[in-house]
Structure formats: C-alpha cells, structure tokens
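Hi team,

Filling in the usual template for the complex we talked about on Friday. All components are listed, including any nucleic acid strands or ligand strings, so the model treats them as one assembly.

SUBMITTER: L.P.
PURPOSE: interface mapping
COMPONENTS: three
RESIDUES: 387
SEQUENCES:
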Amino acid sequence: MWEQQVAFWVLAVAMAAAAIGVVRSRNIVHAALFLVVVLAGAAAQYILLAAEFVAWVQVLIYIGAVVVLFLFGIMLTRAPMHDDAGALDNDQRWGGLVVALFVLGVLIALLVNAFGGKKIHFSNALVSLGRTSHVGTDIFRVFVVPFEVVSMLLLAALVGAVVLARKD
Amino acid sequence: MTEFYRQYLSVAVLIGAAALMFGAMLGAGRLLRPNRPQPEKFITYEAGSDPVGGWGQSNVRYYVYALLFVMFDVEAVFIFPWAVNLKSLGVYGLIEMAVFIIVLTLGLVYAWRKGVLRWA
Amino acid sequence: MQLNEFLILAAFLFCTGAYGVLARRNGVLVLMSIELMLNAVNINLVAFSAFTKNVSGQIFALFIITIAAAEVGVGLAIVLLIYRNLHSPDLDEVDQLKG
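RESULT (copied from the run log):
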C-alpha cells in the first residue's frame, strides 16, 4: 500500500515541522496555530490507522475546544502581539535540547530493538474496530467505571477552575 | 479497506481544493493591488478612534464560559456512541448516561449558584 | 505499514514536547508543550490498538483526550492566577518558596 505510506510521510513531516514551530515560535498566537496543525495531523494519522471515531473526537475536543481555551488563555494573560525574541524562553534552552535529543536517541534505539520489522496488517476487520458503534459498545459495557469517573473528574476540574478564575 | 480510504480521499481532495482556492484568491489579490505601506495603515481599526492598548477589553470571566463550553463539548462527544447503540444498550445505557449527565449538570449548577454566569 | 513508523513519530513529538516544557518560560506555552506529549501517547495507543486488533487502546486514547481537556482547563486557570498575582505569565517568577 504505497499510497498509505506516502500519506503517512507527508503528514509526519508536516507534524514534525509544526511541533518544532510550537516550541520555537517567537509569537504565542503562532505557536497556538502550529499546535492546530499538529493536532489535525494526529487526527489524520488516526484515520490512516482506521480509528475513525477517535479521529473525529480529536477534531471536536482538541481542535474545537482545547485550542479555543488556549486562545482565551493567551488573550487573558495579555500576551505580546509582536514577535518577542528571547522573552518566551528561559536560559535552559541548551540543557533542554540535550535532554530531548538523548531521550529521542534512547527511545528510537529501544523501539527498533523491540518492534523492528513488526507490521500492522490492515483489513476490513480493522475498519469495523474503529467504528463508533463498536467503540461505543465497549465504552458502555466494559469501561463503565472509568466512564463515570471521567464525569467526576470533569466536575472537579470545572469546580476547581471556577474557584481559581473567580474575581474576588 | 480501500473503500474506507477512498471515502476519506474525497475529504482530503476537498481540503486541498479549499486551500488552493484560498491561496489563489489571496495571491491574485497580492499581485493586483497597489502596495504603498504607511505606519497608520497597520493600526487596528476601532470605529474611527485610536485603539487603546493591545488586549483592551479582555476579562477573566470570559474564561469560565470557555471552560463550560469545553465540559459540554466532552459530554456531547460521549453522547454520540451512546446514541448509535441506543437500542442494544437499553435501560442499562440510559442509566449510565443519566448518571454522567447529572454529574456534569452539578458543575453547571455550581457555577450558577456561585454567580459566575451572571453578568453584573 | 511498519508499526515502528508510528512509534518513532510519536517519540519525536514526545521529545519536542519535553524540550518545550524545559525551555519555555511562558506558562501557556508550557501547557501547549504538554499537549504535544499527550498527543504522542495517543498516537502510540492507537497504533498499538491497530497492531493488536484490540479496541481498548482506542478507548484509552478517548479517555486521555477527555482528561487532557480537564487538565488544560485547570492548568490555564492556575496560569491566569499567577498572571493576576505576579502580573506576568512567566513560570520563572514563581520562586517565593525558594529559600
């Protein structure tokens, strides 16, 4: 399936470039827009992996809601609207780079060693696995307790954020 | 399997066509328009008067509204798989979903009782 | 397709996010870098779900997306509080507990 391979690499290169944009951009609003590219690329990768429902949840919650929350955060902290060289980074840039490259090297060596040559087999069974009805059946029959705990977590987050953001 | 990808190929083609149209329209505008930059032209338009500061009117209370939107977005996302399986899940699924929605509604009631929804 | 292609893409995103958390000063940007790391985890989970033909990985990814939304909500509220008290969203300024 060479088409799949091409689609993967186009998306992967775009995602990697946008991820570097998120951590290197000198303008906070641009960083948020780069984050949208990474999130949309991840949604497209889920489609490639035939996880249809997860892909659209990614678009709805991440791109639709979380990025909006980030833009509100940028607005409310009165971020500088002009490019601000150096003011967004601290002095740990080189230390951070060394740590990130070291972790990346270790992870790649580990992954090649553990899963080198393993292939994902694409079939119609995989497509039906990611359908909303199949995912829904498993959420409501197997993962009942986590599902209810998530509602408690969201309630706690909402109450906590209301307490924190109230103007007193 | 290829059928699945073919369906999403049309989505990709649509996105590509939209990007192309967008780029063509802005590119044509750039080629055709006269370009005489003046510093006054870069000031934000604010109904004729000079703008005040950068993020003039932002208020921390907007944040609670954005957060409520996120919470109910998540709730809507979990209602989809329930709605698709409504018949097969039956009363069991109804009770699960009722508990989920009631717990999230408690958050809305809390925000209401604390008065953060009132714009005074 | 190779499983490793997805895993190495996720590893790259994770390390980029880790760099962002270490090197960024602005609280909002640190939270964005954390989102990059969470997305890397999600790509791993969905790739393994396709590899093992088991839907549990996708459901874990769904719960992680939900929890990330809650995390950003509380995290940004904390950054807003830091901004209100210190008049700057920079996390370096929060050093009052330092002896």
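MY TAKE: The mean pLDDT of chain A is 89. Chain A has seven helices and no strands.

Thanks, L.
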